[in-house]
Automatic annotation (TrEMBL), chain A:
Residues 350-497 form the Asn/Gln amidotransferase domain. One of its GO terms (molecular function) is glutaminyl-tRNA synthase (glutamine-hydrolyzing) activity. The keyword ATP-binding applies. This is Unannotated protein. One of its GO terms (biological process) is translation. HAMAP family: GatB (MF_00121). SUPFAM superfamilies: GatB/YqeY motif, Glutamine synthetase/guanido kinase. InterPro entries: Asn/Gln-tRNA_amidoTrfase_suB/E, Asn/Gln-tRNA_Trfase_suB/E_cat, Asn/Gln_amidotransferase, Asn/Gln_tRNA_amidoTrase-B-like, GatB, GatB_Yqey_C_2, Gln_synth/guanido_kin_cat_dom. NCBIfam families: gatB, PRK05477.1-2, PRK05477.1-3, PRK05477.1-4. Keywords: ATP-binding, Ligase, Nucleotide-binding, Protein biosynthesis. It comes from freshwater metagenome. It catalyses: L-glutamyl-tRNA(Gln) + L-glutamine + ATP + H2O = L-glutaminyl-tRNA(Gln) + L-glutamate + ADP + phosphate + H(+). Pfam families: GatB_N, GatB_Yqey. Belongs to the GatB/GatE family. GatB subfamily.
Automatic annotation (TrEMBL), chain B:
Pfam families: GatC. The lineage of its organism: unclassified sequences, metagenomes, ecological metagenomes. HAMAP family: GatC. Signal peptide: none annotated. InterPro entries: Asp/Glu-ADT_sf_sub_c, GatC. GO terms for biological process: glutaminyl-tRNAGln biosynthesis via transamidation; regulation of translational fidelity. This is Unannotated protein. Transmembrane segments: none annotated.
Amino acid sequence: MSLKYEDVIAKYEPVLGLEVHVELGTASKMFCGCNTIFGAEPNTQTCPVCLGLPGALPVVNEKAIEYTIMIGLALNCSIAPFSRFARKNYFYPDMPKNFQTSQYDEPICINGFLDVEIDTDEGIKKFRVEIERVHMEEDTGKSLHMGGATGRIHGADYSLLDYNRAGIPLVEIVTKIVPGTGKYAPEVARAYVAELRDILRSLNVSDVKMEQGSLRCDANVSLRLIGSDVLGTRSETKNVNSLRSVERAVRGEMIRHAELLNKGERVVQETRHFQEDTGLTRSGRSKEQAEDYRYFPEPDLVPIVPDATWIETLRAALPEKPSTHRKRLQEAWSVPDKEMASMINADVLEIVEATVNLGADPAKARGWWLGEIARIANEKDVTAADLPITPKDVAEIVALVAAGELTDKLARQVIEAVIAGEGRPSEVIETRGIKVVSDDGALMAAIEKAIAAQPEVAEKVRGGNLPAAGALIGAVMKETEGQADAAKVRELLLKHLGQ
Amino acid sequence: MAEISRDDVANLARLARIDMAPAELDHLASELGVILNAVARVQEVAGQNVPPTSHPLPLQNVYRKDEVTPSLTPEAALSAAPASEEQRFKVPKILGEEA
Ligand SMILES: [Zn+2]
């Protein structure tokens, strides 16, 4: 029986720290001209530089520096007038050089912040997440652990390495500790990663696909007793591959820490791995023994001294901030705060916008994405954006309903069928033979049948009790299997009963 | 005088994954000390007005354009690997923890 979240926050104050790694969307790698295509055949995108062969000479990709400066500027950072690369020495087969080219005490961007908003019981609350640094490094290769039962390193007989990813430019964005989030720590963590993702997307510097690993979040969590200023021991959770998982991982770690502390046990300083299926974390590498990466300045690369005019040109060209963009949409669509927050929380804002851009009425587009589609997504435990239904499909459905060719009920059937993979809306309508019964003759037959079945109700309506008509309309809708337009049925029925 | 202790050598050996006998540790502690001292003499020449450098030439901002150039074929990439499988480098089982 695990501890309740309310009991955790009644006693402890969470302290968050977030590290986000972003693979930049450059055409070539960080220090060599190898391609960066995701999912390419193993070891088809490697060369002497990214394989760490003797004598190879790395040269910095200018675009990667430009992207990193843009990220720093968008996060309100100062851009260092002088920064350098450093070697982070460690022995692990994912880095064939036996070191990772990274930055140590001289990162490109420092001291920024990002404001996030979350929807709480007390209305929309704003939190400022301070950014400590944004630095450049390179991604590592991918390992497959062979033998053993689980594909995990423990119990494996050997490992296979693909170095296509090794050397892809990676930016690490590190926050300062985020205190004062209280019970909202999980939501703040999620909102931060979501906001960061939206900013990176608007800058067009990365494809920010969490599920493909181009955006990865490590969540550091510790607890301290409320009222105490002694920080607790932190754990660092890796493998957090979706926004929802960020929230779950932080909440899960808070509960795990509190359970240990309540039992008088201590929290071990370690890396933990998030398990998508259970929402729990499992123990990874212990960090009890101080790591010693023996950083030193990279002798094969020269310092980065960005020209002030370059920085100002990049600053001037920054796109509209996602938060400003949202405010603009909210005004244009006249959406209340709460509903805007629901859209952001369900991560459907972008698809609603795309649907509206295809001609759909904003309220209708929002209604479908937040209603029927979100409901199905919930059932399947995925996000609406993951379902095989596109803004184009929804725009088409909205148009058909507006034209009277689908009722809301039929539209729901079409949506379900599209998600079930039966094809695009027009194909579903065609194959299922879905159409609104608008033929007056067929409707009148159904109306007369309904009246015959409930003569006493019909009498009430004749007598002027209009709300009673609902029962008859319901019967007609049932008879026509929802294919009739309810407004039309009502009109015909009332006319028929002399109203 | 730069000093390097037996413990320093043992720690470096552990970090570098080099298995060393106790006798080698003693021997290397004194030998590495001599090397460090030789290199440290540079500090006698460099005055306070000479900033430390990480590169022998006064260069900065050396960049390449973000252009794709041909990679090695997988066969060439794997040609010097002691073992390979499924077009991947094959390494002995990794001891210790997950990264
Ligand atoms: Zn390469």
